[in-house]
Amino acid sequence: MKIIGIVLLVVSFLVALALGTQNQEVVNFNYLLAQGEFKLSLLLGIVFGTGFALGWLICGLLYLKAKMSASMLRKQVNKQRQELDKLRTDPVKE
């Protein structure tokens, strides 16, 4: 499964490079605060890289949250298992 992910990443990078070499036109780009003239290949690279970084950041944060939740639940289960084992071994008091 890891190999498929790496292959997809390399293919995506190669597609971005191919698009970059074919698009050397200068375009006017209006963004929120100002505007500028950029080569289309540079603009595509920046947008691709930013999207890639944001995707990794979001997935990483969600993964970290899931790992922390699993760790907390695992501790809770171990604590409850110890309580249950103790209740099973203690004699019944009347």
From TrEMBL:
It comes from the Bacteria. The chain crosses the membrane at residues 42-64. It is found in: Cell inner membrane. Residues 22-85 form the Lipopolysaccharide assembly protein A domain. The keyword Membrane applies. It is a single-pass membrane protein. Keywords: Cell inner membrane, Cell membrane, Membrane, Transmembrane, Transmembrane helix. Belongs to the LapA family. Involved in the assembly of lipopolysaccharide (LPS). This is Probable lipopolysaccharide assembly protein A. It comes from Enterovibrio qingdaonensis.
